[in-house]
Amino acid sequence: MSSILMIVTGANSLTMKDGTQYPTGFWAEELVTAHRDLVAAGHEVTIATPGGVTPPVDAGSLDPAQTGGEAQAAELSAYLDAIAADLAAAIPVADVDASDYAAIVLPGGHGPMTDLAFDANVGRVLVAANDAGTIIAPFCHGPAALLSAKRADGSNAFAGRRLTVFTDEEERTGGTGENTPWWVESALRDAGLVIDSAAPWSDHVVVDGNLVSGQNPQSSASVAQQVIEALA
C-alpha cells in the first residue's frame, strides 16, 4: 500500500472574462474515478486543499446531462456521500510534506484555474515532489496546478516536460467557451511545457518519467491505472 496525496481545488467559482462568476469546483467524475480506483487497488488517499477547506463539487458535473444519465449521476453522488467525511477532513496544502507521499494526484474541474494555478504552497509541494521523482498525476484542468511550480529564478519546474491537458479546443467547444478568462493549454505552453494532445474528448494519457497526465474526464480511469501500475 502506498500513501497518495490528492490535491483538490477549494474554489467554488471562476471569474470570467466579462467579470461574471462561473460556479465551479472539482469535477465529480474525475475525483470519484481516481479516488475509487486508487483505494480499490489498496492505496491510502489523503485529500488536501488550499486552506484545508472542504472541496466543493461542481454541481454541473452531477447533472445527468453531463454524466451520461440518471444512473451515473446517482452513482457519483453516492460515492461523494460515502467519502464526505474524508472531503471535510481535507488537510491544508501548507501543512503537506511531499516526502510523505508516493504519488500526488490532481483532478480537475474549473476550480484549479482559480486557486491551484496560483497557490505558492501547491507550487512548493509540486517542486519538491518532482525533484524527488514522486509520481505526479494531473488531469483535465488539474495540470493548471503545474503553473504554480516555479523555481527561485521564476522558471517553471516542469518546463520541457511532455503532458496533456484539457485543450483550448475542448474549452471553446464544450467548456466555458470564449468567455474563458484564460486558457490552460496555452498558459502551460507559455510556461515551457510541451503539450501532447489527442482528438477532443478522447481518452488520452501521456507519461513522461514521473509525470502522468490525462486530457479530460474521459481519461480519468486511464490516469488512475497508470498511477497504480507505476506504484506497483
TrEMBL record:
Keyword Lyase appears in the UniProt entry: yes
Task: State the InterPro entries in the record.
Answer: Class_I_gatase-like (IPR029062), DJ-1/PfpI (IPR002818), Prot/Nucl_acid_deglycase (IPR050325)
Q: What's the protein name?
A: Type 1 glutamine amidotransferase domain-containing protein
Q: Name one GO molecular function term.
A: transferase activity
Record CDD domains: GATase1_Hsp31_like
Gene Ontology terms: cellular component: cytoplasm
Which biological process annotations from GO are given for this protein?
methylglyoxal catabolic process to D-lactate via S-lactoyl-glutathione
Start and end of every DJ-1/PfpI domain?
A: 28-229
* Similarity comment: Belongs to the peptidase C56 family. HSP31-like subfamily.
What Pfam families has UniProt attached to this entry?
Answer: DJ-1_PfpI
Alphabetized, the UniProt keywords read: Glutamine amidotransferase, Lyase, Stress response, Transferase
The organism named in the record is Agromyces fucosus
Q: Does the keyword Transferase apply?
A: yes
